[in-house]
Amino acid sequence: MQKDLNTIRNDIQDILYQHQATMIEEASIAEIYRATCYYLRQTIGKNIYDTQKKMIDKKTNIFLSLEYFPGDLLFKHINYMNVSSDIQNALSKEIINLKSLLEEDKSIELGKSYMGIYTDSLMDSFANLKINCIGYGLLYRDGYFKQLVDENGQHEEIDDWWSRGKNWLYKKEYKYSVDIYGQVETKFQDGKYRFNQLNTSKLNIRSYDLPYISKDSEFYLKIRLFDDLNHTNRLLPKSTTQSDREEKLIQRYILVSSSLKDAIREYLTTNEYIGDFSSKFRVLLADSNLLIALPEFMRILLDEYNLEWDEAWEITQNTFTYIKLKEDYLQAEGNLLMKVLPRVWMILDEIHHRYIKKITTNNPNGEIKKESILWDGEVRLINLAKATNTKIDTINPIIAISHRKYLQFANPELFEFINESIKGDLSKDINKIESILDFVDEPDFIEEIGKIKQNHKFKLSQKIFDYYRIKINPYALFDAHIIQIDEKNRQLLETIYIINEYLRLIDNPNIDTIPKVFFIAGKADSNDVVGKLIIKLIYKLSLKINKDLTIKDKLKLFFLDDYALKSIGTLYTGIDLVQSLATPTKEKVNAFKLISMINGSLAIGSKNKYNLDFLDSTKNIIYIFGTEEREVQEIYENRSYNSQEYYYKNIALRKSIDTLNGAYGLFKPDEFKELFDLLIKFNDINLVLKDFEDYRSTRQEIDHHFLNKRKWYSKTISSIALIKEYSSDAVVKSQFDDIF
């Protein structure tokens, strides 16, 4: 920004006069935070405008996603713009600590899954690689939910990010009308059929722009977020009821319809003929659920621009690319589409019949069922993409993260040390990080890596004490498991192992064992009874363990809710081991695993698809245990598993599980009987008991390896080098090259 400190201070003062009518010396931290945001917004807004002008003759990529995870934007912006020290020094007369300003920032979480981290990282790379792109999403004013945890379990409150996060939003004048429900009237007029939607519910959609800035460049992008107070206020949980599924369909439709209308508006500002749209704009869909954009685009061209079917069809075929970020052959419910989007359903039906006619003409003996778009009340979205000849790009790896956000600025000590060691500039070329593999046998390099990790562990230990008033051993094995809390992610397996370790220590407090500190975090869907009960179990177990002075510092357990995570900060920089335990065949991508590993941790994982794929890259830096996917499938098909066999044969396992029914005084009788029944009475569908012993023996191996710090930190060098393959920059360059 190249401004002297007095100018910065005066600019912030002018903003305070304008918005708060106060002096810097008398303003609150919240007021100065807001003024600082607005000060940065001036430069950000100008660079967004200038970027748009520079790209006016370039092809525009439209990127649609239901989730983004921008996070704490003040921290990001001051680092990307290289102004953190300038702002600190400009405000130093008031002894305003930059840390206190950062604590005022509200994390913008327009997502709840790894998809939000992935798409946020892709947008970060689009900006830094100077790829002309507009992101589109929904403005979840209430986020997902703010999580609080106590002895009664998880409580959900509204996430009030809007109170601070809106400082980064630019309100736009563009408004769009979106029609849902109603009926379709068909008329034959002027030699063609015309379709009118009657008795619809009209939604008036507003829009806001959220900036995506680049580091050390003035090439700035944005995501346009659509807002409807009745339908986009919150990110919905996994659908379990008809009303929830209906609401999620409305959200998707708001996104695709508003995005396409906005893109057409942008196109028509410099072009007259809608038929050339695909030569100027490309639409990238980051979720199979968004493939309803295809018939919606046809509807807009047919009904609003009066094109003939064949012309509209050709434009549609040349416009879309489906970015397949995961193996998802998701389907939509036909009855919901008919009810909520009757005109879109008509177009889907027409596409289906034309497609069936085409494939049967080309292959009379072909299997119609397999290729059908509409079948047995379902809409097969993947087949819809095939029917329209939509380009389908399968993205590997399945997860990618921004090295700027999750390494460079999250862990500057590690980043700068590596930069100096390889004599390169990783911020511009992350591929150079591969050079650190040359140091895996260099004692001095390994020692420095260990020092950086240990310093982070000291800081984390202090933050834990500040927050919980509990001392932890900074030399213990720090273990983290952070992902959505549910049956499939098997936090229950880890918890039973921790109970087993605790019972061993109760029996013999002087046992020689590696001290361990477990950190577990994640939200259970608000409608997930079992997930919320697992959170309650972990929390109550932590109270027992952390108050037990007889076991000293050999075992500690913390469940970190939203507020604790915010207070403790970048947990992943201090982690020695990260867990990824999902049941094979039910796996979910664990972004926290990758983030922790590229910050110098090792990993333990079940033999699910993602961990095995990961193993190809990680060699010996991920410990794999448990049942293979093939065997899990056979168990489900043959019903050959009996959890009670494992329960009665393994005394240590049985003792741990019996605590769920009140044994050994850890919990109240029957307090967690539902979890006991899940494992024993209902036969443990996630194979917790089957995998327990292998998990425990693998952890014994980990304990043994952790004693040899030099060898341990040598392995973490390979973990850090993973960012070369899994950085979003690398993914965009290798996977998106033919698109861009």
Automatic annotation (TrEMBL):
GO-annotated molecular function: glycogen phosphorylase activity; pyridoxal phosphate binding
Reaction catalyzed: [(1->4)-alpha-D-glucosyl](n) + phosphate = [(1->4)-alpha-D-glucosyl](n-1) + alpha-D-glucose 1-phosphate
The entry's keywords: Carbohydrate metabolism, Glycosyltransferase, Pyridoxal phosphate, Transferase
E.C. number: 2.4.1.1
InterPro entries: Glyco_trans_35 (IPR000811)
GO biological process, one term: glycogen catabolic process
Cofactor(s) demanded: pyridoxal 5'-phosphate
GO cellular component, one term: cytoplasm
Keyword Acetylation part of the UniProt annotation: no
Family: Belongs to the glycogen phosphorylase family.
Function: Allosteric enzyme that catalyzes the rate-limiting step in glycogen catabolism, the phosphorolytic cleavage of glycogen to produce glucose-1-phosphate, and plays a central role in maintaining cellular and organismal glucose homeostasis.
Protein name: Alpha-1,4 glucan phosphorylase
Species the sequence originates in: Soehngenia longivitae
